[in-house]
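Running this now, will post back.
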Amino acid sequence: MDKIKNFKQKQNLHHLPNKLLKILLLIIGSLIFLYLVTIPWRAYVCRKNLEQGENLLVERKYTEAFVHFQKAEMLEPGDWKSKQRLELSKKAAKDILELRLLLKEKNQDELTQIISDADSKVCNLETDRVLIDKGLAQVALVNLKFCTSDGPKNYDSWLFLGITNQKLSEDNYIFKELKPDYRAEAKRAFEEAYKVDPIAKTAPEYLIELYKTDNNSEKVDYWQHLLDNLNKIEK
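Update: finished.
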């Protein structure tokens, strides 16, 4: 009886690898089947994420758009459009001029025209003021860069450039890693404004606010001291 029992055990052990192989093949086959079956669904969800991302990008909601493009790329790895849109989100957050082609595709004629006007190489500070008030600081920045490079470089142009960069540094839809650069540009612009008109108090007030954000007490004290002196002169 023991011999028969041992023989059966050996037979079972002999067949065990074959059973495991069959189970493994069944699992692999099922996974391949599921992958093939879900291809249309993944393609549909990918397209939807691309559409949502593009709509958000047109609204200049860069971080939210980026998330949708990431989802699209995960669903369709290697998809050229998802990759291109991911790059566009980053580029446009730095420079809104990168959005012009997409805006045309989405028939955003009004915004396209506003951006083109800002890029017309004509310094128009009144228009920039309106754009900043309307939440279009990034468009105003295009014109203000011209104003402070090839334009008149007066107090208001530097001041508006600083305000614009500061607003962008506080924008919830701008990538976190870009915000320090916008703050740095804001400081530089306000310091240039102060050089043009050392009596005006607005630039030092903005600089104090910015350096408080950076927890730079030394710079806060420096500009606060200058501001206090200006207040004494006014009295």
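The CA atoms of residues 158 and 193 lie 5 Å apart. More later if anyone needs it.
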